[in-house]
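Task: sequence design from structure.
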């Protein structure tokens, strides 16, 4: 027969709110937990029990609530033998007593702890009625009583802070818990004061009932004809609210007759209360008699009483009676009412529409009171916060009033109210109150509380703008050599409606939805309706110049297109003659800056930016150059109007409608606040304001009905080789050895350059060491990522399919090209920024030829190949290394997944396990949910992290 081994269990209370347990003889904590808590339901049978190292020993943690449950209903494990130490047996005895106190509600707030800044509870020892033999307080030593109070306090606070039941609890209940919660909230808000002894404190908490038959309330009455605000004490019967009198602060009855049963208590109670009032607000003390309270207040003191002291009195549970009109007027603020007088006429002037100035009549009101010109001027000069006008008291928000005055002076100086302000208000009005004062705003000036009234013409104009995403369809251009889908027809009509109203717009359809054909159809529509007397200008990346030429030739062969590109391009007069004889001039972003003087010499009918994210940095020379172009209408085409930062959206929207979203400086400040706090109200407000001028449809929108094949995205996780791991650790070691001694800018540079090298190491060691004289076999052995890619590409080609491969490093692209050509024994093309345009066009044409079997692998640098290309011959996309932005990656993948794709598309994303690539992937997953809204990120923020945070994100994880 086996005898059970006996273990002695010891315990000790830690004033962090729990006991720690340990056995003698020692045994592993997890093993002991399985024995001790096998039948303990609150800890889910030991699964939630934690441990803590104290000194050199790992001990079991038993929280206060679990300890109470555990030691009052000891769970039994028949397969183990325990012996409790003498100290634990005392805890077991104390647990039963404590549970009884909680279930009977014999607990109370701890005044001494509250005075020291803590919220604690204790047993109501003085209320114990049992005899000594019934476990009265005398049965416990002072140390036991101290522990019982501390144990109980942690249990009560835990239960109050865990009202939703997030943690498992025992079978016992706390009687009077709601009473404890109410007192807890009051203790949090209340501050210690000299007059607040324990008795008064318990009365204030509502823990004790005042024995007096009446209640006292401090009353402030509105001023008499002499302008004095009177203070008095309202005394009300507890059982009959209609029975009341009013007394002066010195106890004299000034209204009503004092009941005889109140007289013995009333004078002393009023004296005590007024001393309390004066302790809270010293200014209430009578300057001629420090022991008496003022009976009258001037305007300044009345304002302090209303705005500050009353809230303080209430926090101490002191009843306050204020003038009946106070609640209503404290919410009233000055409001500017503007009636727009001049109607809006669409003049076909495009972006000039935003510059129109609207004439208006104005008035100012506060609450229901409309101010006369004389009253308005008087308030501007007054400094008092509380003023009576026409026998009505009102709070004067002087800051808002001065803001209104400054804005009116500005409107008068400039000749009217800018149309963009009228539009912003009109669009935001539908969302309720647009003037949320504490929300970030994208203009230099804070929003005004303003009510705009419009005439019928302006109201109709705004209605058209609100419904602009459902425009009346324009006739399809007769010269269009192709068919428009319904959503594309709507896009053309949207551009036409914007022009009619005098605005520009950004067509931001998802990649592959046919922005090109929509713009060509729109130009044809203009040719057949308006018949412009000047050409349009199209600016695009160099890589897609040829693509645009071919698309014009395909869809609009009758449009006269002039390509302004290359060293032999026309200059000066020859350029002007060629441009004026064309319908469309196409050029690149680089030449928009280099040939700025020539391009700004003409006023264009329309100026369109393709892949408009190229001007996302408003400070670049090419972004500044395109802003100087003059046209009847401006437009932008982009699948990613916002890649990383909110200011990128500002740059595009400022191009299409200059001035609409304020200055870049103010908008940058707004963007930082929104990106930092993800402020939903500000995001929605900005979305509302820009929505009419930005049209975005996505592939999977049910209204689009593209009938595209499926797209499947797969992540391929790869381990580093030992060589890569060593190089990775060396880079981190080098960074952290030098980082503390670097200046701010040097530190930032060191962090960013290290990140770049870590990415390169994840790709292949050769990016740091060079690949000369290394065989293909050796190169494959150095990187598991390269080995996996080679195997997968080989399988793709065996199945007769084609693929494109994206990498952000040119050297990696060259290495991939060499390895894959050797492995596949076929030509592999690599397109990057250094490839001339004619060669790029040839590469794309060869790859897209279905009959061409020997060129089925195309490597592209992410920046060069991520925009404007149609590569539907491929149905596999490999992201060899990860970019920081999901929008950029998706844009690259959509070179394949677009209209014209007939096969299922497979997107493979390579990730090196435990490295910065995996951290990037985790961040991208979080960011994907925000990419359709207004978000901000990028690489720069990593350089601002602390050393500990840097280690967390860069360190090589081993798991």
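Answer:
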């Amino acid at each position: 027969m086996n005898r059970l081994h006996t273990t002695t269990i010891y315990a000790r209370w830690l004033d962090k709110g729990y006991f720690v347990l340990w056995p003698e003889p020692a045994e592993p904590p997890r093993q002991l937990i399985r024995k001790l808590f096998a039948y303990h339901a609150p800890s889910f049978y030991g699964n939630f029990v934690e441990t803590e190292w104290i000194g050199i020993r790992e001990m079991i943690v038993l929280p206060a609530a679990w300890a109470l449950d555990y030691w009052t209903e000891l769970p039994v494990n028949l397969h183990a033998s325990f012996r409790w130490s003498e100290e634990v047996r005392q805890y077991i005895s104390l647990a039963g007593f404590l549970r009884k106190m909680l279930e009977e509600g014999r607990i109370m707030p701890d005044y001494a702890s509250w005075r020291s800044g803590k919220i604690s509870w204790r047993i109501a020892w003085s209320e114990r009625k049992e005899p000594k033999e019934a476990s009265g307080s005398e049965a416990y030593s002072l140390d036991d009583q101290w522990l019982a109070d501390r144990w109980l306090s942690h249990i009560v606070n835990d239960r109050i802070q865990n009202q939703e039941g997030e943690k498992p609890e025992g079978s016992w209940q706390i009687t009077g818990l709601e009473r404890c919660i109410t007192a807890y909230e009051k203790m949090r808000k209340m501050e210690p004061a000299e007059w607040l002894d324990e008795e008064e404190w318990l009365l204030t908490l509502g823990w004790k009932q005042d024995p007096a038959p009446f209640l006292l309330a401090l009353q402030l009455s509105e001023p008499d004809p002499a302008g004095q605000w009177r203070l008095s004490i309202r005394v009300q019967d507890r059982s009959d609210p209609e029975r009341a009198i009013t007394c002066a602060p010195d106890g004299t009855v000034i209204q009503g007759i004092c009941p005889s049963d109140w007289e013995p208590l009333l004078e002393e109670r009023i004296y005590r209360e007024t001393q309390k009032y004066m302790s809270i607000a010293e200014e209430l003390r009578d300057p001629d008699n420090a022991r008496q309270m003022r009976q009258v207040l001037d305007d300044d003191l009345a304002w302090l009483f209303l705005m500050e002291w009353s809230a303080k009195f209430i926090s101490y549970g002191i009843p306050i009676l204020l003038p009946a009109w106070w609640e209503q007027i404290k919410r009233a603020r000055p409001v500017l009412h503007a009636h727009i007088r001049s109607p809006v006429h669409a003049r076909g002037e495009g972006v000039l529409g935003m510059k129109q100035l609207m004439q208006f009549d104005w008035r100012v009101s506060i609450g229901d009171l409309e101010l006369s010109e004389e009253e308005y001027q008087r308030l501007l000069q007054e400094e008092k916060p509380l003023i009576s006008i026409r026998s009505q008291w009102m709070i004067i928000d002087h800051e808002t009033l001065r803001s209104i005055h400054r804005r009116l002076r500005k409107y008068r100086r400039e000749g009217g109210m800018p149309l963009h302000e009228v539009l912003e208000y009109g669009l935001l009005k539908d969302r309720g109150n647009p003037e949320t004062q504490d929300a970030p705003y994208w203009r230099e000036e804070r929003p005004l509380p303003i009510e705009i009234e419009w005439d019928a013409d302006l109201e109709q104009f705004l209605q058209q703008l609100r419904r602009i995403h459902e425009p009346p369809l324009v006739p399809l251009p007769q010269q269009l050599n192709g068919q428009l889908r319904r959503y594309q027809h709507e896009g053309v009509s949207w551009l036409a409606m914007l022009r009619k109203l005098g605005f520009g717009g950004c067509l931001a359809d998802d990649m592959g939805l046919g922005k090109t054909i929509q713009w060509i159809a729109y130009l044809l529509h203009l040719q057949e309706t308006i018949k412009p007397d000047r050409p349009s200008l199209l600016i695009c990346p160099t890589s897609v110049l040829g693509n645009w030429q071919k698309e014009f030739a395909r869809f609009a062969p009758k449009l006269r297109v002039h390509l302004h590109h290359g060293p032999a391009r026309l200059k000066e007069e020859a350029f002007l003659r060629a441009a004026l004889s064309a319908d469309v001039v196409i050029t690149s972003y680089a030449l928009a800056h280099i040939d700025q003087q020539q391009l700004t010499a003409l006023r264009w009918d329309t100026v369109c930016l393709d892949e408009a994210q190229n001007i996302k940095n408003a400070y670049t020379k090419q972004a500044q150059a395109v802003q100087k172009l003059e046209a009847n209408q401006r437009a932008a085409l982009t699948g990613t109007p916002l890649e990383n930062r909110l200011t990128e959206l500002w740059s595009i929207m400022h191009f299409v409608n200059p001035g609409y979203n304020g200055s870049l400086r103010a908008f940058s400040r707004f963007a930082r606040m929104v990106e930092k706090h993800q402020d939903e109200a500000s995001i929605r407000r900005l979305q509302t304001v820009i929505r009419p001028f930005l049209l975005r449809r996505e592939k999977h929108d049910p209204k689009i009905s593209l009938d595209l094949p499926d797209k499947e995205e797969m992540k391929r996780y790869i381990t580093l080789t030992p060589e890569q791991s060593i190089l990775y650790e060396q880079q981190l070691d080098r960074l952290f050895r030098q980082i503390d001694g670097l200046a701010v800018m040097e530190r930032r540079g060191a962090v960013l350059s290290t990140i770049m090298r870590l990415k390169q190491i994840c790709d292949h060691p050769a990016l740091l060491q060079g690949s000369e004289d290394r065989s293909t076999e050796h190169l494959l052995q150095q990187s598991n990522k390269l080995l996996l890619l080679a195997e997968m590409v080989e399988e793709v080609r065996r199945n007769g399919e084609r693929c494109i491969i994206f990498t952000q490093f040119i050297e990696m692209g060259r290495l991939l090209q060499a390895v894959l050509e050797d492995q596949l024994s076929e030509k592999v093309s690599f397109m990057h920024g250094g490839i001339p345009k004619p060669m790029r066009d040839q590469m794309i044409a060869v790859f897209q030829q279905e009959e061409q079997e020997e060129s089925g692998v195309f490597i592209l640098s992410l920046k060069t190949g991520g925009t404007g290309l149609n590569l539907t011959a491929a149905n596999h996309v490999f992201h060899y290394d990860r970019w920081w932005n999901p929008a950029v990656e998706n844009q690259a993948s959509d070179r394949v997944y677009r209209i014209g794709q007939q096969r299922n598309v497979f997107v493979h994303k390579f990730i090196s396990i435990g490295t910065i690539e995996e951290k990037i992937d985790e961040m991208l997953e979080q960011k994907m949910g925000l990419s359709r809204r207004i978000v901000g990120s990028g690489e720069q923020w990593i350089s601002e992290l602390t050393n500990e945070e840097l280690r967390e994100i860069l360190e090589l994880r081993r798991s």
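The two ends are 45 Å apart (CA to CA).
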